[in-house]
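Ticket opened by: R.M.
Priority: normal
Category: complex prediction / small molecule

The reporter submitted a protein together with iron/sulfur cluster and asked that the result be attached to this ticket for the collaborator who will pick it up next week. Submitted input follows.
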Amino acid sequence: MLGKLARMLERAEEGPIEFDSRFSRKRVQKKSDLHAEWQKENKDAIAKIHDLGPELDYYSRVFTTDMRLKELQKAKKAGKKIIGIFCTQVPEELIYASGSIPIRLCAGSFASQKLGEELFPRDSCPLLKSSLGFAAADEPYISLCDAIVIPATCDGKKKLAEALDEYRPVWALSVPHCKDRPQDKRQFLSEVRLLKGRLEKLTKKRITDKALYAAISLLNDRTDAMRAFRAQREREPSVISGCASQLVAQSVFFDDIKRWTAETQTLCNRLAKKEGKPCRARILLTGSPTIIPNLKVPLIVEDLGSTVVIEQSCGTEHSSDPVIDEDREPLSAIAERYLMPSYCPCFVKGEDRIDRLLDLIGRYKVDGVINHTLRLCLPFDVESIKLRDVLSQKRIPFLSINTDYSKEDIGQLKTRIEAFFEMIEAKR
Ligand code: SF4
Ligand code: SF4
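Result attached by the on-call engineer:
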């Protein structure tokens, strides 16, 4: 009885993180050409993908045309809510179950990073500055958002939430520091409940269990397609490059979920009939996400004759795990899905990320690991030290790179990556 009372009191005090708009700064001058610059950056990066063929046309169009933007504008006019999301811990099932549409806003544009530098410390990671730059420039995708959900992961993302709230309503999603204790799971489930309440208030519609099960099934179909695609990437020799694979995996950030799932099933059927091409070295790329158009490192790897056969990164691993809802309350099943398989370095313990990497190294027959740290990203920088030790004990070649979105260090990176491949070749 007392326990029940304590739980009721605890619940009565629960509330979402609210920002105080008293301290809003002035808007920066509108720079409406940023959207066109972003599309141009995308076109340039995609044009460098060496195995770009007609089977990838659909995915390219998502990044280089306004096809999806127009659809979203139309959906919004028809009364749908558009919800911007960051990172990988936002339960998309809730958004679909509310009748809304999610789009992922983590940004990889150099042009918007320059603008973000006027508003955020220069000494912060480029992903944060680039994302903020889009908001400050009224970029059409961000302008469409009725709300933006940001998990409070690394310190930068926490402060980004506060800064973005000056442009669009931001709902910060508190993420526990650990994920394996019962109280962590309870805390995250309570945040997921609060998010559900906020979506219901915004859409003026109750999210029923029936709608949640339908959304789970919709997203699990997408996961099946993503897993089938990843299975094709396991093949040796490789049937698709790492850069093309990132194009496939990241177009899901914006595009219609059913269309993406159908297109990716078709692509998998085509890849299944394709013969692979041997390469210099099969590489696993891990660390800070390489968000299109920032394909700098994978493009160098593949220009030099190797293939990124798999990434361990939230830029491509976001849709690889299903919600297991058998005999369970749907909200708990969803909360668990977005906490447990997250390998984000913001959690206190990073052992499961290393276990995950070792598993991928075996399954994808990896010859060497490249760790990509975006400049000033402390969590990945710290984890790279432990990773180096573990991989060196197992005699797995490892290269750690610290870079940003600029092109200035391309020559230097090419030299280091070429030397890394020569070392792998000499070991054979
Ligand atoms: S690594 Fe973590 S904090 Fe960084 S973008 Fe990915 S999910 Fe977000
Ligand atoms: S985890 Fe690193 S790369 Fe991701 S947003 Fe934070 S500082 Fe940037």
